[in-house]
Design a protein that fits this description.
This is Cyclic nucleotide-binding domain-containing protein. InterPro entries: cNMP-bd_dom, cNMP-bd_dom_sf, RmlC-like_jellyroll. This protein is an alpha+beta fold. Helices cover about 50% and strands about 20% of the residues. It is built from twelve helices and 16 strands. The chain has a four-stranded antiparallel beta sheet with strand order 1-8-3-6. The protein has a four-stranded antiparallel beta sheet with strand order 2-7-4-5. Helix 2 crosses helix 3 (about 75-105) and helix 3 packs antiparallel against helix 4 (about 110-125). The protein starts with a helix and ends with a helix.
């Protein structure tokens, strides 16, 4: 009778220690990344700054590899930790939103006390969450993809055509400078991504002038990550090589099947538009952490999401921005030219508010628009519809 209870107790203690280890490792990686972006604010010597950044990037990659190996060895524990962190983020966002509502006078004192008590109780309940949660299955991962948004017809369409592929340690999933064959959703295992720094659709000659020294780019991808989204959308060659660090299993969606899905699901918001929106948010959050004015931008995006949309800027066509309905305009892919000052801008870049008319200068140019919160929902619907109609029109012209 004693031995099973002792084993159960030991398992709980081991799981608790692994939870703490994963939390510490993730905090270390995040700390290295945040500090790397702030080095230029601390050190005025460019040589020293570069050397420190190189060291921190290496430390970050080592930490990322350890996190990936922990997820491979203990997927149930890592899933539980990620769930707790996601709940904590939601509760923190709720606290910040409540502060805004209180300062605006939309919540009285009685409601304020009740809501604060409720949020505090939820935070206390985080300790009661289980230390292990079964990792999601392949089908559950497919349902959790942000651009599918639990759309039953779209998920069924993808499931009918997707294939499960298995790779061994050292296998190459895709290579740099090759044309993309499709999208890979990692079900299990860990992969290493190596290549040059992302160009975000900037022309090769311009990119080489802006980045004369080749800068290696390394990242580790684990369960739930997607490979090849941007390249399949732009139909441009891969900018990185993905190698298996462990045995890997992926859900593979071919380019042909993806194109059929784009043709099938054109209603607003179209499937293609939703993928662009997801990528635009990822690029923006990753690229602008070093901007002091935008340090909390990614944290507050949960409250801004209803006011965010992606806009196409066709080549050689002028487009008005900052027309009174926009808080921020971010160039996430391609390049534009300020029509008044003749100033070029290259992705990723926050366009200055003195810029009111731009013209696309790349094959594919995308802007992420953050509307003002006072803009009517009717205007948002119309703009979203216009953006999606542009995608639909483009698809029809391609077929013709």
């Amino acid at each position: 009778l004693v031995i099973p209870r002792l084993i159960n107790l030991l398992e709980k203690q081991i799981n608790k220690q692994l939870n703490v280890r994963y939390d510490i490792a993730k905090g270390y990686v995040q700390g290295e990344e945040d500090t790397k972006y702030l080095i230029e604010q601390i050190s005025c010597h460019e040589t020293i700054s570069k050397e420190i950044k190189t060291i921190m990037e290496k430390n970050k990659q080592d930490g990322m590899k350890e996190l990936g190996l922990m997820q491979r060895d203990n997927p149930d524990i890592v899933t539980a930790v990620k769930t707790k962190q996601a709940v904590q983020t939601v509760l923190n966002t709720a606290t910040e939103t409540l502060k805004v509502l209180i300062s605006s006078g939309l919540v009285d004192k009685n409601e304020e006390a009740k809501l604060q008590k409720m949020i505090l109780q939820k935070k206390h309940n985080l300790g009661t969450l289980p230390s292990t949660i079964a990792p999601p299955t392949a089908e559950e991962l497919l349902h959790s993809i942000s651009w599918l948004e639990n759309e039953k017809k779209q998920i069924e369409f993808i499931q009918e055509r997707a294939r499960i592929l298995c790779y061994d340690y050292g296998d190459i999933i895709c290579e740099e400078h090759e044309m993309p064959e499709g999208i890979h959703l990692i079900i299990s295992g860990m992969t290493k991504l190596c290549g040059s720094s992302p160009s975000y659709g900037v022309a090769n000659d311009v990119y080489e002038l802006r980045n004369p020294k080749w800068v290696p780019y390394t990242d580790y991808l684990v369960s739930g990550a997607i490979i090849g989204e941007l390249n399949c959308l732009t139909k441009q060659e891969m900018e990185y090589t993905v190698t298996c660090e462990t045995a890997v299993q992926t859900y593979f969606i071919s380019m042909n099947d993806l194109s059929k899905a784009f043709d099938e699901f054109l209603e607003c918001p179209s499937l293609k538009y939703k993928i662009w929106l997801k990528l635009a948010l990822d690029i923006t959050i990753k690229a602008f952490k070093e901007k002091l004015a935008y340090q909390d931008w990614s944290y507050k995006m949960c409250t801004k999401l209803p006011n965010v949309y992606v806009m196409d800027v066709p080549t050689h066509r002028k487009w008005d921005i900052y027309d009174g309905t926009m808080d921020d305009v971010i160039l996430v892919h391609g390049s534009v030219r300020d029509c008044q000052k003749e100033q070029p801008y290259f992705a990723p870049c926050i366009l200055p508010k003195t810029c009111h008319e731009v013209q696309g200068t790349a094959a594919v140019t995308k802007l992420l628009i953050v509307r003002t919160t006072t803009t009517m929902k009717r205007k948002s619907s119309r703009r979203c519809s216009n953006a999606c109609q542009y995608h639909s029109c483009g698809r029809r012209q391609d077929r013709l």
